[in-house]
Amino acid sequence: MNPRPDIQILAINRASSAVFNDFLEEGEYSIPWLQDVTAESVWTQWSGVQNDVIILDRKGGRRAVYDYYHGTTYGLRSLLLSIEAEGEE
User: Fold this and answer.
1) Distance CA 38, CA 72 (A)
2) Is the CA virtual torsion 53, 56, 60, 63 positive or negative?
3) What's the CA gap between 39 and 62, in Å, rounded?
4) pTM, to two decimals
5) pLDDT-derived band of residue 3, with 50, 70 and 90 as boundaries?
6) Which 3-state string (H, E, C) describes 5-68?
7) How far from chain centre, in Å, is Cα 70?
């Protein structure tokens, strides 16, 4: 049996979409959720696009961006596992 990969997932919601937080936080498959605020503007700083998955290393450096809208769960899983297997640079 393979060991569990050391991958953590969280979401960030753009400041203008805060009204949808209740909907996004409900359900069996909810993940940790960060709400951006206008003063921080993380969504803009990271060039966020709806449905993109931005993959960071442990130091917060960008490793990859995955377009989940046009991709698949399997494709995202494969990318995450390949990055995890590479380890920290």
Assistant:
1) 31
2) negative
3) 22
4) 0.69
5) low
6) CCCCCCEEECHHHHHHHHHHHCCCCCCCEEECCCCCCHHHHCCCCCCEEEEECCCCCEEEEEEC
7) 15
